[in-house]
């Protein structure tokens, strides 16, 4: 029998400054049967130093280092060593709520047919807001990803589909993984509580993607799963073309918004509006 029920896989590349906060959110879990594997993807920062110090705090925290291979490679490497029945990927700059594991495992134990459990989410950092995501439906998943990477699934299912696609180094590797892991018969449960916190940074892998990247990756995923798309769409090529345009437009809007919200002019303007509102409130009290 395994000592751990959940294995949390934390790839880290140039995210040492956030790693302590990320791991603390794991240590704070109400459900304690977990192990955490930090995977250093040959990061040039202080990832190794920070990770080794964290390992001293709790023997459930483990550390490995690999030659740089990207997030898919790091996750696959960590999962291959995992002892838990369930896997939870968690990027080193994000964090989870203290009851996430407890509530997710409770679902798996009560509903044996469950393939995946995720939750509500919030963005924090440069942007702070509720992350509105559509409910899961497999036909919609083929169009866009509504499940972030930090969802729980069985290690046996990861083995069944062959892990994450390591050729996807620029992004959307979690979307492609869900397409293979799930199907129209899968039971996917979304917890109706916020348990995932997604950090928005000015410089990140997702923010650095351009329209050509989105188009290239989107077509790669579409062609790789063409038989599945043909099953669900009468004209999959037309759907893919329309969807590619929407994906590019959506990502461009998100990146533009993030750039605006983190700009110096926006921050100064926001401070001025706050001060004016304060002065207006004082005036009203006189």
Classified in CATH, the superfamily of the largest domain is Spore Coat Polysaccharide Biosynthesis Protein SpsA, Chain A
Oligomerization state:
single chain
Compute the average pLDDT: 87
Query: Ranges with pLDDT <50 over ≥5 residues?
Result: none
Shape summary: globular
Main sheet?
9 strands, mixed
**Based on helices, strands and strand pairing, what is the structural class?**
alpha/beta
> What's the architecture of the largest domain, going by CATH?
Alpha-Beta Complex
Give the CA-CA distance, first to last residue. Answer: 71 Å
Number of helices: 11
- CATH class call of the largest domain: Alpha Beta
Order of helices and strands: EHEHEHEEHEEHEHHEHHHH
| Helical content (DSSP H or I, runs of 4+) | 40-55%
Taking Cα atoms only, what radius of gyration do you get, to the nearest Å? 20 Å
Strand residues, percent: 15-25%
Strand-helix topology:
Elements: E1 6-12, H1 16-27, E2 34-40, H2 47-57, E3 61-65, H3 71-81, E4 86-89, E5 95-96, H4 100-110, E6 114-125, E7 129-131, H5 138-141, E8 152-154, H6 155-161, H7 173-181, E9 187-200, H8 211-224, H9 226-232, H10 236-261, H11 264-285
Parallel strand pairs: 1-2, 1-4, 2-3, 6-9
Antiparallel strand pairs: 4-8, 5-9, 6-7, 6-8
Helix pairs in contact: 1-2, 8-10
